[in-house]
Amino acid sequence: MRHRLGILLISILPVLATLAHSGEARPAMRIVEIKTGELTLSARFYPAKQASGAPAILLLHGWNWPDNDPSAGVVEAAREFQAAGYAVLTPTMRGWSPSGGIDDCAGRQVDDALALLEWLGQQPGVDAARRYLAGFSQGGQVALLAASRGAPVRAVAAFAPVVDPGSWGEETRVDGIRDYVMEECGGIDGWPARSAMHRADSLRQPLLLVHGDADRRVPTQQSVRLYQKLVEMQRPVRLQLIAGAAHDQDAVLQPQRAIDFFREVAAEDRQLK
Predict the structure, then answer these.
(1) Does residue 131 lie within any of the structural domains?
(2) What's this model's pTM, rounded to 2 decimal places?
């Protein structure tokens, strides 16, 4: 029996090695805790398949109900980025369990994103010069604001982002958002610091904006206006509208769009060397 078991194990090992070599086996996700200021954030880390020189992405979730862990909602997107060769970090942002803290509409959440990018760049196997940033909805807002504050990333992808809280509160067609904007986004005095439109001059990294053209929660004009402003400023920006898509993460958060865009940026970098 032991002899047969030994033969069985020896037979399986080459198969496992082949799967790993072919890319079908992926490193296991692990839960990590990362300190950002006074708060410790919970996050899911998906290591890259390659042992060194891997690109990495910080993927930020959108607003969710307080009792949910929003990072669980972007697992499929994270796995798609990982399969494309990225190390991926998906935190539960400030304001949601199990991270705790208070949702402040892209206030201190931006500080958190900058700290998370620093942590990501220090991980074994990650090429810190090839970090990227992406987010959906409120996560897109945080990504844009982090980029405007000099986030050490090569490019950014924002999916259905809140670009300007003031106009968002006026234009949304979903009940309750106007109150949220007034109460959680700092009121009129707090909006400029939370507005990528207001900080557009500081957005210099290549930027991909993706938005559904039937979005009633975060109207499409949020992305369109930022795109138009950045084009006028001759900044590297691209806008992709998804026909018939509402504010639906499954329909709008399409990792392949970001992967293709990031690869184009990387190819241009190689040509300049």
Answers:
(1) yes
(2) 0.88
